[in-house]
Design goal:
The protein has 4 helices and no strands. It is an all-alpha fold and 122 residues long. α1 packs antiparallel against α2 and α3 packs across α4.
């Protein structure tokens, strides 16, 4: 892979990461959340930054970009495991949130159905 000089554009993934994480923290702070930076996981902002870094050089294969990324983060094998670990963590958090919403809806439906059974006969 050739060393293409991106100049100031190379800082774009860092700016996207910081903008995402700090921006969400500020939004949650304005909304009055008790722990605003705890609502948006850092690893999700990190994955957004990494995704933006992988988009920067469109002429290079993704496999080469991931190799360069993992080699420059540390030992390539260890960093690949870290990336593989980070990706499902976001999906697990979203799945838990969805399960909590479904549980709440089920409870509300059960309570509504048992307390207002007479509405079915109107």
């Amino acid at each position: 892979m050739e060393n293409k000089k991106l100049g100031a554009l190379a800082f774009l993934p860092l700016i996207i990461f910081l903008g995402t994480y700090i921006g969400c923290g500020i939004v949650f702070s304005v909304m009055g959340a008790e722990s605003p930076f705890g609502y948006f996981p850092r690893h999700v902002a990190l994955l957004v930054g990494i995704a933006s870094a992988l988009i920067l050089a469109p002429g290079v294969k993704i496999s080469e970009k991931v190799d360069v990324l993992t080699e420059n983060m540390g030992r390539s094998g260890v960093m690949m495991i870290v990336l593989i670990y980070l990706m499902p963590a976001d999906f697990r958090a979203q799945q838990q949130l969805l399960a909590a919403r479904l549980l709440l809806l089920t409870c509300v439906y059960t309570i509504f159905r048992s307390n207002f059974w007479f509405l079915a006969y109107l």
